[in-house]
Amino acid sequence: MSNKYFGTDGIRGTVNQGNITGEKFFKFGLASATYFKNQKKTKQIAIIAKDTRLSGYTLEPALVSGLVSGGMHVFTLGPLPANGLAMLTKSMKANMGIMITASHNPYYDNGLKLFGPDGMKLSNQIENKIEKLIDAKNTKQLTNPKLLGRVKRLENGNDKYIEILKKNFPNNFNLKGTKIVLDCANGAGYKAAPKLLNNLGAQVVSIGIKPNGLNINDKCGSTYPSKIQSAVKKYKADVGISFDGDADRIIMCDENGKIINGDQIIAMLARRWKSKKILKGGVIGTLMSNYGLENFLRKEKIKFFRSKVGDRYVKEKMKKSNFNLGGEQSGHIILGKFATTGDGLMVALEVLFSLRKGKKASQLLNVFRPLPQILENVMVKDKNIINKPKCKKAIKKANKLMNGYGRLLIRKSGTEPKIRIMGESHNNNLILKCIKIIKSSIK
After folding, report:
1. How many angstroms separate the first and last alpha carbons of the chain?
2. N or C: fewer beta carbons within 10 Å in the chain?
3. pLDDT value at position 258?
4. 413 an active-site residue?
5. Residue 76, phi then psi, degrees to nearest 5
6. Measured distance CA(376)–CA(420) in Å, rounded
7. Please, what is the angle between helix 262-275 and helix 291-299, to 10°?
8. Contact, 290 vs 329, CB < 8 A?
9. Helix or strand or coil: residue 136?
């Protein structure tokens, strides 16, 4: 059963339309408070963080109002990376954490990501229960006036997050002599990331750290990696690091400006963790993971399974398989040894820890030869168009052409009104031909 409000990564959409209004956020807050305050905890606490979108100033008060009306005490943290919120939800023993963000989407979108008391994203089952409460009559959920929640602003959220990150590494870990180009996408990591890397002694060239409410992910960040490519060459840096709007994904580039995606980072970490006897079980990728990664891990005798696209599904499969490493090509990487969800800054530290001994990023991060892959996104009004007979026929025809020469993946985006078409083969012309056949049926 598909959810009414929640997608593959929380609730997301265009501001002041559909679900992304003050009225709906009040209902989300009230429903979430009603569900979580019934869990066995003496204190009823929710903590809220956000990215840097202008719309956060309208949506956060509505969300807080709903939570407080349901009897939940609220701590607001301001801009903070998504996994920072997850970590603090757990360390502060809160009932829940709510991240106001639309991740890598443009400024005019926003949304919510909900975390449970264990710092994990909510399961489909819990989301379904909250959805029923959202649509229930609000008067049944409104608390007695004496039991209204209280609200407090915490200014040290980023410092607490940095402390937790640093505890995962030796006290003598430093980055002296390392020049890093850092792109924070004018998003949630714009405070924590430069501060932490500077504290560790790195020479940091920071871009995307001047948010104005409208420039988040705007020609910067992990969806625009050419920014770090050119900056690494210009400043002769050792490595480039790029986050998205809520800093839960990372894309890198080596000292030559070559882009390093999530698959290459996962391959490097898997091999390193195996040699250090840190790797537990194997690696979880997704349907989008490059076949070159799968082939590399097979040669390294490391188990590899695929999940549905979405870091929540990666984490669920990691938990089910008892693995401690997984992630996506897009840069959502979950280090199960340290985190409950994707954390760009944590992954960056783990990579930089390997680079500190004078190794070049080009040597460390170009681990396998990827199979050529082309991804095209088609804007649609109705994502169910791929279930129509005409589209199904085109997909069948394209798969028949590709059979034996590569693979195709056609799926609905879980976060945007798009159909994503991915082709993978050594024959680029064949990929393009197959994508064209499918696109023409969609349009």
Report:
1. 28
2. N
3. 96
4. no
5. -105, 135
6. 6
7. 10
8. yes
9. coil
3-class secondary-structure state, position 191:
coil
Blockwise average pLDDT, block size 10, the chain, 443 residues: 74 94 96 82 86 98 96 96 95 94 95 92 88 81 92 96 94 94 98 97 97 97 96 97 96 97 97 95 94 93 93 90 95 90 94 86 93 89 89 92 87 85 91 92 83
Q: 82 near 188, Cβ under 8 Å?
A: yes
Calpha distance 32→370 (Å, rounded): 43
Token pair belonging to 131: 């959805």
Look at residue 417 and give its three-state secondary structure. coil
Q: Could you tell me if 315 and 324 are in contact, meaning their C-beta atoms sit under 8 angstroms apart?
A: no
Give the pLDDT confidence score for residue 242 in this predicted structure. 98
Tell me the C-alpha distance between 188 and 103, whole Å.
9
Is 29 in contact with 63 (CB distance < 8 Å)?
A: yes
CA distance 63 to 352: 37
| Model pLDDT, residue 39 | 66
341 CB contacts (<8 Å, ≥6 apart)?
A: 82, 83, 86, 115, 119, 120, 121, 248, 311, 312, 315, 334
What is the rounded distance in angstroms from the CA atom of residue 371 to the CA atom of residue 236? 29
Kindly state the tokens that stand for 83: 């996994």
Which of 225, 186, 177 lies closest to 206, judged by CA? 186
Alpha carbons 222 and 265: distance in angstroms, whole number: 14
CB 26 within 8 A of CB 72: no
- Nearest to residue 206, comparing CAs of 183, 229, 230? 183
241 CB-near residues (< 8 Å, 6+ apart) = 180, 181, 182, 183, 193, 228, 250, 252, 344, 348
Contact 221, 208 (CB under 8 A): yes
* Euclidean distance between CA atoms 192 and 199, whole angstroms: 10
Burial class (CB in 10 A: 0-12, 13-18, 19+), 423: buried
Give the dihedral of Cα atoms 164, 259, 51, 285; nearest 10 deg: -70
Max Cα-Cα span within the chain: 68
Question: Which of the residues 69, 103, 242, 425 is marked catalytic?
Answer: 103
